[in-house]
Amino acid sequence: MPFTLDQLNAAPLAEAASMLDGLYEHSPWIAEAALKQRPFASLAALKHAMVRVLAEAGVEPQLALIRAHPELAGKAMVSQSLTAESTNEQTKAGLTNCTPEEFAHIQQLNADYNAKHGFPFILAVRGPRGTGLSKAEIIATFERRLHHPVDFERAECLRHIHRIAEIRLNDKFGFEPALGNAVWDWHEDLARHTDPGYAELGQLTVTYLTDAHRACAAQLQRQMLALGFDEARIDAVGNVVGRYHGHTPDAPGLLTGSHFDTVRNGGKYDGRLGIFVPMACVQQLKQAGRRLPFAIEVVGFAEEEGQRYKATFLGSGALTGHFNPAWLDQQDAGGITMRAAMQHAGLPATLDAIGALQRDPSKYLGFVEVHIEQGPVLNELNLPLGIVTSINASVRYLGEVIGMASHAGTTPMDRRRDAACAVAELALFAEQRAAADGDSVATIGMLQVPNGSINVVPGACRFSLDIRAPNDAQRDALARDILTQLQAICTRRGVRSRAEETMRAAAAPSAPEWQARWEAAVASLGVPLHRLPSGAGHDAMKLHEVMSQAMLFVRGLNSGISHNPLESTTSDDMDLCVRAFSLLLDQLAAGH
Questions:
Q1: Is 393 in a helix, a strand, or coil?
Q2: Calpha distance 564→543 (Å, rounded)
Q3: Do residues 287 and 396 make contact, with C-beta atoms less than 8 angstroms apart?
């Protein structure tokens, strides 16, 4: 029989410790120390108590814990001396059934990793969903992490040890993150759709109004209706809009959602998590036959990333009345205008139809958005959820430096008008200037030398510039200094430049009352509160212009990496997020 939290809280210390035996490999002291903090309000609170015990123990006990773990498919497995828990996990991952070639490769990886880091490679082989990683995934992760710095890997091993303990704890208490598992599976299913050229490579890319994009929209619409939404439609810009009615037809609405388009070769959770989490909440309400004193409107925004067209926040911008008419005449890389793409997708492609999408803020309580963090903070703190205090201000430019193409062998260094070197110098200045602020960032993420050749001094270099800061004034000062430096570099090098501003978004501080609701919801789950700003832009930035908003972040794995196939989170964290969202709905209902 599974244990219960009540049993754990009431049991004598020795008995309670025996209930938690085996969570941390050969290290019962972690659970024993955490048990001194009883009673626990939730399993999440117990998990975090053990995280804190290990964090406060210091480096040597942490290294001892890591070294207490067996190698993957290593000597302990061969000699059958693994603990019962490790045997079960490695067996489920197929590590007890390796081919000779796989076994030899893993053994070499074990040797190389130990030689570099001084401790064994630790991986939660049951994975983010709890159902197990494939051998190919395990080996690929091993190969990637082999090259990390030692201190980074020590921390990463500890994070995986906590994930292993989390899964083992779930097993002991018979807990299955059913809501999180469902949301995880929905992400996997939607990720089947990807643009041509990327599908063949196994990469996820969904850009505005491509066939894959329209397939995603149609799938989201069908799924909303299947889960119990009263209405679901695709609007004039391709947004998927689902509505679950309140008690009365004239009830105000809670607006929520995020985007379902992706960057090229992106991750599965960026944006989409903010659509699926409220969908799961609506499913729960429908199954319970429950209506709230307000409607829930979930929007899958069609375009946020600005990949196919320079129209960042197109989907949410249409709802706030900020659709730029000039966008319709923009052309993609293939020469297709946005107007033509809309018409091909069966959308009206008229300003009247798009203008009709503008929402009346007086009919809404506000806007909330759930999003994967897209950064390392929650991951490093071993916290599943974070409260967003503000979304940073941002501005983007596309620029070009024009110099003179010339022969690389015959043009002396002091006579060159090298466009690429000018941009390289600008990139270094932007790095240094942003770092001086302490909390600003500046990135030149694209550099292209048109018709470049190995033996030609670059005559032109195109580049992007992305600038973000906690407030508008700091962003503007940073942008001004970088653009001024660009002119100085060009003058000194005898080249010329242009820079076109393509996007500007003001800082969006969270509405205090909505931030407080998220905080109360997270605290009710037994999860410690952590407040942090968002360095990334989100659809909430646009809705902020017309109504109150606040966001909740979910921890990302792999150092919180995003805009990358390694973007990931666990079904346990997703489960907590769904429950936090449901608690927020309960708070709102109680207040109305």
A1: strand
A2: 26
A3: no
